[in-house]
Amino acid sequence: MTGTCWCFATTSLVESESNRKIQKEIDLSEMFTVRNIYIEKAKNYILRQGKTQFGEGGLGHDMIRSIATYGAMPLSVYAGLPAGQTMYNHAKLFASLQNYLDEVLKKTPVDDDWLLGYTKILDSTLSEPPAKFNYQGKEYTAKTFAKEVLHFDADDYISLTSFTHEPYYKPFILQVPDNFSNGSFYNLPLSELIEVTKSAISKGYTVSWDADVSNNGFKQGIALALNLDQKIKYNKDSITADMAEMPYTPAIRQHLYENLTTQDDHLMHLTGMEKSKSGKTFFIVKNSWGKVGPCDGYINVSESYFAINTISIVMPKAALSKTLLLKLGFKK
């Protein structure tokens, strides 16, 4: 396991968009993006003299920005796994990287070539990606692959959130630990965030979803996520899709964010919607924890759970209505 769910979830979004737009299924390398962002994290850590977040985590916009900056490549070309391993585990790697950077900062001025030593440690686990590679009979670089095969444009995606301490319909820097790159998110009223997500799914788009999953309502083992009373210990046999849930409002959501109950735990991929027997709306969510639970790794997330626990989302900008785009300041 790694803390790179941000990359897996948003890579799945980009793959889905590629399939939707050009009817081509492409399995992208998550670790190519992870490696590039790990290098960005190191540069940020040095420039901020160690007084910043340094960890495996990130947000969906980091993956979008990485492709825009560095390109992308297929998983078949670069898996980022040591020989003989089939699972990613970056715990030891990150401990080594952190120790190295802290040693670099003990000397001022820092050595001009500190990044070479950092990259050497990084590549001892992930390996160095190829500068060029062949894909379906043609040679590409990561950047030409992103442009010519994926037809990728970072401007095709938008990052959204909903909190009451900032003005609506304006972008702001989301205050969560994993927003190391100080990315901005457009702020929507909660009802509109929910509706734009539903609308995107109904139009055939998918959504990268950042949410808190550390509460008692997230039950991957039974493929359900419900907005349950946090003071009650539930028997899993008593949890059903149609059971009553706790209420949600913007004020409740804001309070849980500000008292640090709701945190940026985990990113997943919203791929569809369905109704329960009583008519409750559920999002069909692809998780990255493997084939866990009765739905082979997918989980059904109630609208109420989504409303309370969402930190942010990334989705194709084309999924937004013209009216909403104008409210956000986009002229076309």
Structural description of this entry:
With 332 residues, the protein is of the alpha+beta class. The protein has ten helices and twelve strands. The protein has helices at 5-22, 30-47, 60-70, 91-104, 114-126, 142-148, 190-202, 250-258, 303-309, 322-327, and strands at residues 133-135, 138-140, 157-161, 171-173, 184-187, 207-211, 218-219, 224-225, 266-275, 281-286, 298-302, 310-316. The chain has a ten-stranded mixed sheet with strand order 4-5-3-12-6-9-10-11-8-7, with helices on both faces. A two-stranded antiparallel ribbon has the order 1-2. Helix 2 runs antiparallel to helix 5. The chain starts with a helix and ends in a 5-residue tail after the last helix. The model has no long low-confidence stretch (mean pLDDT 96).
